[in-house]
Each structure stands twice: as structure tokens, then as C-alpha cells.
Amino acid sequence: MAKETYTAKDIEILEGLEPVRERPGMYIAGTDTPAGLHQLVFEILDNSVDEAMNGHASLITVTLHEDKESVTVSDNGRGIPVEKHPKHKKSALELILTTLHAGGKFSAKNYQTAGGLHGVGSSVVNALSEELIATVRRGGKEYVQSFSRGKVKTKMKTAKSSVRGTGTTIFFRPDPQIFSSITFSSEIIRTSLQTKAYLNPGLRLQFVDEAAETKEEFHYPDGIRAYLQQLLEEKKLNIIGEEGFYLDREDKAKVQIAFAWTESRSELFRSYVNGIYTADGGSHENGAKSGIVRAVRNYINVHNLLPKGVKISSDDVREGLVCVVAVMLPAGKFKAQFQGQTKGRLNNPEVAPIVESVVKSLEQDLNENPSTARAVVDRIVLAAKARAASREAVKKVTRKLSVSHRLTLPGKLADCST
Question: Concatenated DSSP letters for 248-291?
């Protein structure tokens, strides 16, 4: 069983931790913006979510403490290993929290999927925190160790000798010497937890806001289909046709796509890789876009639905589209290549054709739902006609301006005088 084989010897070390405090902008999204501050929460949270994605955790609780300047993330996963590393002679817990690139996610042995290739999350949070306390429940015991600004404050000790269950709890307070503000936003944290719940249907995520004296739980068995519905309601958009579309396949990678056409003039894509939000898209999002366009064009051509003289562009097909793309890349087959530690864009070109191949089945779905298909095609044709009319209107205005400019030119230029 994985619970028994994930031990201290599985922790690999690539390099030291010292650069983090000197150049934090290389590891997080800045020290003077909310994005950089909240990334500390998300780095710890993603570690817990990785446990859940690999079948080892079912509950994660995030607590924003009353001062709004400290956070605790707790899960019921396997617990960080606490045994001494066979090579480095320190506990695995200490190595993970004080050494850059120390973790069990660099191979597929312990994590089939994980939120990124960097593996620096916990140690970076520790380096940039005034205080961090790690509590591990493992092997029937509870272990505690505290740190400050990336350095060991107290040695790991056994806090309880008889506990039930397993898991990891991380409390941390960001360092005011590093960040211009260390005040967290409950709404940013809440939104992130809700999104994680959509992406992990079997996971329960709890958010405790001590200042507001509230506790919420997020759990969505319908996964990204529920996420799509939430986006539509949030944007107050009505779908075109009777229903949206949901496509999924688990072959080389696990791919899920939920989407619907709406009356909006713009498109909205939310894409994720191994549970990480890719705000700048990437190869997985490009694969979804090109796959949808190709499937729709094939359907239109096969059924001869394109009016004479109308040309459809990719933008016409995607106008009004609201889409959620979630991809899980197995560690044994892929190394997720993200753009920077903020992981805003996926750079794996081999993922695009995998996602595009999944979307091929959209053509079959359109055939099986003729009323929705017809409504979607009519909407796309309307977009194409409107775009063509807009281009023609611009041409007319340009021609008029050009003629007016020529008519106002003098027949002969006057001599220059000084």
C-alpha cells in the first residue's frame, strides 16, 4: 500500500533554500501584491489537494485566524514523513520545510499527479514566514516542529504518543519584513477553495473564518459541470439550446471539458492542470479551442448548414462560449511544464493534441442533440454575419474618409515662407 511505502528515503533534494528570502519574486508573484501573499496559502493548500488527487485525503480545512494575518491548512492525508532521511540524516519533515526542491513529487512513485513540477511550495512558504508550525499525525503519533524565516526554531518532538488517523497541519504567519502587507482576504481564499472543490468531486473543503465566525464546506459531486453552471449564473448568462456539453476521457491523461454557448459577445475559458489554475492558458486550452472549432465546422459542413456567402472564422465559433477545461497529467508519463512558479501557463506542446482528440466526440454529441446543435449553429452564423457586416461598415467609413481627405487637398501647394 502507498501509505506504507511513502517514507523518508523517498524524499529527494535538488538544491538549497537560501535564495528565496533574497529574491522572493523568483518564487512567488511578488511581495507587494495580494497575489504573492495569497500564493503562500495556495502552495500549502495544493500540497493537501495533491494528497486528495492521489486518493490519500478526503477532507481539507483552511482556517483564517482572527488577526487575518495567519492561516492554518489541515488535511487527513498520509502525513509528511518524519523518519530520518537515509542520506541527509535529518527528518524528512525538516528537509521538506528547509530545503528548496525537497519532496516526494519528482517521480511517479508517491504521486501519480501533482500541482506542478517545481515542488518548492512548502519550503518557500517557510522561508517567507515569520513563524511556521508543522504538525504531523502519522504512525499513531503526533509530531510537531516550529520554524522561523526558513530556519529551524525547535527540533521535531513527539507531542502525542497515541492518536487516531493521519494528516498534516501547517500554521504560518507571513513575514512583514518581506511583504508590504500580511493581511489576507477571506474572499480570495474562499473562492480558491470553492474552485478546488469543483475540480475534485470526491473532496470536501472547509473554510473557517474566525473573524467573521463562519464555517463553510464546499463539496460538488458533479465536478466541473457544477462549476460551469456556477459561472453561467455568476455572469447572468443564458445558454444557447437545451443544454451544455460535457466531454471526458482518461487515456494518456485525464481530460474533462464542460462548456456551453451563450448570448454573450465574448468567450470565457477557465483552464486547470493538476488542479492548478492556468490564468494564461497554454497547450491544454489551445487544444480545447481548436478541437471545438474543428468539430463544429465538420458538423456544419456535413449537414450543409452554412448559408451561401457566409464564411465562419474560429472567433465566430467561440463567440459566447463559456468553457471549463481540467486536465490531470500522470507523473509517470508527463512532467507538467509551467511558466514560472506562479504556474500561469502550461507549456507542454504534447498536451494540445490529447485534449483536441477528446473534443472530437463533440461532433457526435451535436448529431445526437439536433435541436441544441441547430441553435448553436444559428448563433455562430449570426456571429459571422455580424462580424462581416462590421468589417464592411469599417471599409465604407474608411473609403469616405479617404475621399473627403482627397477633396480637401489644395490644387497647388503654396510656397514656404519664413
Answer: EEESSSEEEEEEEEBS-SS-EEEEEETTEE-TT-BHHHHHHHHH
Please give the C-alpha separations between residue 347 and each of 320, 334, 355, in angstroms, as whole numbers.
Answer: 26, 12, 14
pTM to 2 decimals? 0.82
The CA-CA-CA angle for residues 72, 73, 77, to 5°, reads 145
Pair 349, 285: CB distance under 8 Å: no
pLDDT at 3 exceeding the cut of 70: no
Q: What is the pLDDT of residue 333?
A: 79
Give the CA distances from residue 106 to residues 86, 244, 317, 344, in Å, rounded to whole numbers and listed in that order. Answer: 18, 38, 40, 20
Helix (H, G, I), strand (E, B) or coil at 138: strand
Among the CATH numbers 3.40.720.10, 3.30.230.10, 3.30.460.80, 1.10.10.10, which is that of 224-385? Answer: 3.30.230.10
Task: Tell me if residue 145 falls in helix, strand or coil.
Answer: strand
Mean pLDDT within 342-366: 93
> On the CB side of 357, how many CA atoms lie within 13 Å of its CA?
11
Provide the CATH topology of domain 2-218. Heat Shock Protein 90 (3.30.565)
What whole-number distance in Å separates Cα of residue 393 and Cα of residue 382? 16
Contact 81, 11 (CB under 8 A): yes
- Per-residue pLDDT tens digits for 115-131: 443 345 899 999 999 99
Place of cell 445558454: 239
Phi and psi, residue 340, nearest 5°: 80, 170
Q: Which of 89-93, 154-158, 209-213 has the lowest mean pLDDT?
A: 89-93
Domain locations along the chain:
2-218, 224-385
Rg (CA), the chain: 27
C-alpha to C-alpha distance for 328 and 219, rounded to whole angstroms: 19
Question: With contact defined as beta carbons under 8 Å apart, do 97 and 155 qualify?
Answer: no
pLDDT tens for residues 229-260? 999 999 999 999 999 999 999 888 999 999 99
For 305-361, the DSSP string reads: -PPTT----HHHHHTTEEEEEEEE--TTT----BSTTTT-SB--TTHHHHHHHHHTT
